[in-house]
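Lecture notes, part 5. Sequence design as translation. It can be helpful to think of inverse folding as translation between two languages: the language of shapes and the language of residues. The source text, in structure tokens, appears below.
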């Protein structure tokens, strides 16, 4: 059994279709279908039901997915071990961070980084969500939230200072002053629901 076959199977299971898996793996749907068929033939079991609406796992497929994800973790651990032992700073490194950190904190230092590390190709992906570092969607995450699970090496690299701002006239009219603990009487411009867990959002939920 080949790991590549399992990798294609997992991509279909996670993406819900051959097309989504092909996009994720940067290959063709024909290749994904061929790998999937080869895996089913080796195992002697149908793993995925393919319909016009997409692909769904069979009962066998659900069981195999759990085992395939265990294999995936072993393979990724081996890859990380190998990469960690190569001390030569060369190759492609994919960094994921938010758009504002990328533009305000990372971009100003790119020329110096390139001068010090001429053999590194740095890819920067701006994401609000925490990507799956374990599955190598990125090599490094410069994030404002701490991952809740996963086998990561985590370091704090800085502080993000936050503040509340209001026009002086508005503050005076609503009794806003330093040390105020309740903002119940004030109108608040805050994050969208999708970003409410980021950067002070929980504090707003408690005080405003």
């Amino acid at each position: 059994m080949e790991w590549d076959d399992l990798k294609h199977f997992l991509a279909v299971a996670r993406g819900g279709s051959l097309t989504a898996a092909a996009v994720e793996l940067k290959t063709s749907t024909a290749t994904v279908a061929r790998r999937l068929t080869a895996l089913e033939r080796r195992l002697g079991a149908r793993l995925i039901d393919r319909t016009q609406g997409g692909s769904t796992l069979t009962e066998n497929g659900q069981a195999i997915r759990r085992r395939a994800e265990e294999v995936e973790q072993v393979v990724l651990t081996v890859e990380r071990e190998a990469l960690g032992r190569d001390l030569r700073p060369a190759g492609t490194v994919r960094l994921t961070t938010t758009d504002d950190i990328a533009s305000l904190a990372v971009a100003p230092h790119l020329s110096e980084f390139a001068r010090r590390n001429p053999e590194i190709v740095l890819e920067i992906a701006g994401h609000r969500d925490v990507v799956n570092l374990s599955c190598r969607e990125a090599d490094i995450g410069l994030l404002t939230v701490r991952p809740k699970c996963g086998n990561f090496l985590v370091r704090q690299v800085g502080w993000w200072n936050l503040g509340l701002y209001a026009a002086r006239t508005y503050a005076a009219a609503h009794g806003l002053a330093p040390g105020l603990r309740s903002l119940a009487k004030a109108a608040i411009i805050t994050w969208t629901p999708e970003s409410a867990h980021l950067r002070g959002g929980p504090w707003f939920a408690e005080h405003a």
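The translated text above is only one of many valid answers, since several sequences can fold into similar shapes. The first strand starts at residue 48 and ends at 51.
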